[in-house]
Amino acid sequence: MKVRVDVMLKTGVLDPQGEAVRHALGNLGFEGVEKVRQGKVIELDVAEGTSEAQIKDMCEKLLANTVIENYAIQVL
Amino acid sequence: MKVRVDVMLKTGVLDPQGEAVRHALGNLGFEGVEKVRQGKVIELDVAEGTSEAQIKDMCEKLLANTVIENYAIQVL
After folding, report:
1. What is the ipTM of this complex?
2. Selected residues 11-30 of chain B with any CB under 8 Å from a CB in chain A
3. Within an 8 Å CB–CB cutoff, is residue B35 touching chain A?
4. Which keywords accompany this UniProt record (chains A, B) (predicted)?
């Protein structure tokens, strides 16, 4: 079973990495890039029958820092 | 206009970060996690009318290392 977890910084949390990308795009001549946020994707191959609650538990305990990050689980 | 770019390591390219996550999940007692791949998501706010070709150009030039990474563009 394939599961995809997206982890993004919460709104309002500064994202220096995204800001660096925005700046670099501007330097490369790409205009009109107003905002960039960078996050991570984690693709997991888990055993059939793994519950969404278990995946959520993985996110809370390891994959995301829930103080500053939101996560979204998607079963593929 | 919101655009989302997913950047993942190509199949066959070693992913030590994903491997570390897999290992850590095992140590936390989560069983049945067979494989983990980690990539990044970049969310861009670009000016209306930015063409997909321009976004592709951004990926090729900055967002992805096309030697080892694949990217996928999604206009939201």
Report:
1. 0.88
2. 18, 21, 24-25, 28, 30
3. yes
4. ATP-binding, Cytoplasm, Ligase, Nucleotide-binding, Purine biosynthesis
